[in-house]
Amino acid sequence: MNAKTLKADFIARMHSPEQIQLLFNHLPDVYYFVKDRKGLFVMANDTFVKQCGARNEAEIIGKTDFDFFPIGRAENYVKDDNFVMETGESIIDRVELAPDPGNSINWFITTKVPVYSNEKEIIGLAGTARDVTRANLALRPYTEMRAVLEYVRDNYSQPIEVQELAALLHLSVSQFERRFRKVFQISPLKHIMNVRIRAASLRLMNSNDTIAAIALDCGFYDHSHFTRNFGRLMKMSPREYRRQYAGGTPTDG
Hints:
There is one protein chain. The protein is an alpha+beta fold. The protein is built from 12 helices and 5 strands. It has helices at 3-13, 18-24, 46-51, 71-87, 132-135, 140-155, 162-168, 173-184, 188-206, 211-217, 223-234, 238-245; strands spanning 31-36, 41-44, 91-99, 105-116, 122-131. Strands 2-1-5-4-3 form a 5-stranded antiparallel β-sheet, sandwiched between helices.
């Protein structure tokens, strides 16, 4: 089935396209996409198309997250998709960390809702992602933590203590950790680790630097510390990641 036919067939089977339009009533700047029950893209706006590295919508129709994103991220996306399509429950305003099109690590707010056919069967889902920084959203908890997020983003290559972050907000360590976890559902230390690994993954794809050098530049104690934590988050070793997403590397040391 070609891209045009796939899109037309899906739209014809939809019960209420207005459900999707509702997403845009509150979101002026979004990455927008629709998938069918198999996880194949059937619609997307230009912003999302560019995020995938494609030139136009036709290039992503009929493909999945695994065609455009690292396996760890793709698996998480599919896990959420399956939850929405199997339960009929929506995911609303989930805060997630991911690279933006400029390869900067930013927070995104993701929403996914089920899409129903005329027979009231779930035939897919529609979703949006909002870049918190670029969209300048009025999100009070994020705004409160902005100094902390920017500090970690700018200093992840250096040792960072939780006490330093707490001091930025004039809070005790325990107060800061509770507040951070409430907003982002992870600990400050986990966030620091995520930022370092995301930064390292970009280096693995876009440079020929050795893995050992990348590990040290991204704030890890040594090669083994980096490899262990990278594997936990990305579900593969740094070497495997580079081979899969950068077409191999001449310097894997």
